[in-house]
Amino acid sequence: MQAENFSLWMLGIQQDMEHTLAALLPDAAHAPRALHGAMRYSTLEGGKRVRPLLVYAAGELTGASEKNLARIAAAVELIHVYSLIHDDMPCMDDDVLRRGKATCHIAFDEATALLSGDALQTLAFDLLSQPMDGISPATQLAMVQTLARASGHAGMAGGQAIDLASVGQALSLPELEYMHLMKTGALIRASVMLGALAGTPLATDERATLDHFAKCMGLAFQVVDDVLDVDADSQALGKTAGKDAANDKPTYVSLMGLARAREFASELSSDAYTALEPFAEKAARLRQLGSYIVERSF
Ligand code: GRG
Question: Fewer CB within 10 Å, N side or C side of the chain?
Fold first, then answer.
């Protein structure tokens, strides 16, 4: 019953996100058509929308309005899509398959892919800086800062730089963790904190404990991603499976082995649920979403 309730909730958010993003993205019939088309192609009809789901679940914890959460969730998803487009380009991961379809630079061309990533990123900040009902300018500024820091040199882009430099290198577990906390973890952590910021302010200790949940979940998400890269096929994943080993990339599986990596993901999720205890029932959605992230098969 609880699982059914969660699946319905997830589906509802995924559908709302699709409508919100479709309405916010520029019209592909308007020039520059290739750019607008590429932005829509890469963003719409694809992806699990894990980061938007985290925004909504954290917003439920602080009683945030759905209207504001939709805008915040869309902003985070746009940053995520921009990172996927750029990551797939020949200068980085050089991949041809993403979300079950040709990557942006294959479906369009490299210059259009580069520009569409740039334009999605700036659109995200545009969305986040427009007035939101019941949210003070100071809180909104904190949101913009949270997203900027999670995306930039000290977050996702920095983590990606370390990742690119670590191909063929023997990273230690702490080094791998450091990289992933930046590359994947920072945006996941920001999604939770942004959702929470949209509602009734949390006390300092509550914020810290929620951030600990998000940090553990961000890492667990990556560990599961590494497991799935060896354990699932490209069709199920909608992206090329087995790429990490083919590219000689250090991963949790290459460092710990498959069985231990699975155990580690479950240890991280236990740690994450413990952090949610002070919030009791208000964190029910975040708990369910945590289970989904760790138990997913694609
Ligand atoms: C180019 C600045 C820049 C950063 C790229 C996020 C990232 C950094 C690269 C993506 C490569 C990758 C496979 C990372 C592992 C974790 C991850 C982000 C997986 C993709 O996210 P999902 O599973 O994808 O949420 P969907 O398609 O469901 O949204």
Answer: N
